[in-house]
Amino acid sequence: MDNKKNKLLIYGATGYTGRIIASRAKELNIDFEIAGRDPDKTRKLAEELAVNYHIFNVDTEYAWKIALHGKQALINAAGPFKFTAQQVMKACLKAGVHYLDISAELDTYRLAQSLNREAREAGIQLISGAGLFVSYDALVVHLSKLVTEPEYLKVGFRHYGGFSRGSVLSSKNIADLGILVRRNHEIIGHPDPQPKLFSFGKDEVECMPTPLGGIILSYKSTGIPNIEEFFSLNLPANELPDLTAENLPDGPTAEERAAGRNGISAELTAKDGKVVKAYVDAPSGYDLTPLSVVAVAHRILNGDFKVGYQSPGSAYGEDIINDIPDTYLIDNNA
Ligand SMILES: NC(=O)c1ccc[n+]([C@@H]2O[C@H](COP(=O)([O-])OP(=O)(O)OC[C@H]3O[C@@H](n4cnc5c(N)ncnc54)[C@H](OP(=O)(O)O)[C@@H]3O)[C@@H](O)[C@H]2O)c1
Ligand 1 pocket by C-beta < 6 Å: which residues? Predict the structure, then answer.
């Protein structure tokens, strides 16, 4: 048996986003296998991609041992992550395999944070939120280096491309937390949430206060003590009362995804009052996430990782953005 650990495993590869991740991995000629719980969908996708596959439920420990054999890194694309992250992180800790997911659920980030010691002992890098947050975090790290004492960060996120079924279901796990912000290093409920106008190059967009994950991930990357986040749309869970997988569509078509762009706009105020601003112009969300998480996996497969709980920014700083095609960081300090 080949004992080299040099491959990638993508769990949840048959989902809407998982499929795009798998096709990006194929495009980059990465040596990978796929896994999922649905036999027909998993077998069919493996045939299309001409890769090996594993069919098992996320709770099946012995199956994880087999599927993770020979793997250096794993991408967990099976969300809502509330139901999968713990089992998959534990399996990776046991097998000594680097863990990445594309979660936008704050509780999954907290879970990864709580497993820091175990990840260090296992010699693995544990990043929850290696999708949209890769370029988001690169932007924040960039701004934090332009001032001496970063004090107050505000980030607006403009999303394009609608929502996939998995995102709609997972958004409930964000909406249920209320409007959280970071104040003086602590996460608290926002006392007075108000919309704010953000500039994305030519466009100005009003965004609603929404905790997106930077309050945990970008705090890990930079230690900025005050962080507020804003989103251009209402979370789908706040708009759709009847959330079941059956009555939701898959997600945008490739043409719909290509018809617009995502933007992330950030303003950082330093202790001395200096304000610096920049934004990221990127492909729409369901193209950006696969490009981002596969860029991180590619770094790991080339031996570039930091053990323990990490954020994209703490592991890779701002230059990871150069690994994401068609994605630009633009200073806005005229
Ligand atoms: N922040 C970001 O960067 C970002 C971007 C895109 C997506 N996401 C997140 O990624 C997740 C997936 O989104 P999606 O669009 O791919 O959704 P999707 O089309 O519904 O696919 C979900 C995939 O996960 C699998 N899955 C779900 N629950 C599972 C469980 N308990 N055990 C095993 N497998 C399970 C599904 O398997 P079955 O087919 O068997 O149900 C399917 O393969 C969502 O949580 C979404 O919010 C995050």
Answer: 12, 14-18, 36-38, 41, 58, 77-81, 83-84, 102, 104, 131-132, 164-167, 170, 251, 285-286, 289
- pLDDT of 174 reads 84
Q: Which of 11, 136, 164 to mutate to test the pocket of ligand 1 (most atoms within 8 A of CB)?
A: 164
> Can you tell me the distance from the alpha carbon of 182 to that of 192, in angstroms, rounded to the nearest whole number?
13
Are 57 and 45 contacting, i.e. CB atoms less than 8 angstroms apart?
A: no
In the chain, what are the domains?
7-130+289-317 (3.40.50.720), 133-285+320-331 (3.30.360.10)
**Which three-class secondary structure state does DSSP give residue 63?**
helix
CA of 74 to the centre of ligand 1 (A): 15
The total of other beta-carbon atoms located within 10 Å of residue 123's CB is: 12
Nearest to 295 by CA among 315, 267, 272: 315
The reported pLDDT for the residue numbered 316 is: 98
Tell me the backbone φ, ψ of residue 29, rounded to 5 degrees.
Answer: 60, 30
Tell me, what's the pLDDT at 245? 64
All residues at 6 or more sequence positions from 109 whose CB lies less than 8 Å from its CB, including other chains: 103, 128, 129, 213, 216, 217
Low-confidence ranges of the chain (pLDDT < 70): 1-3, 240-246, 334
Residue 58 half-sphere exposure toward CB, CA atoms < 13 A: 19
Specify the pLDDT at position 167: 87
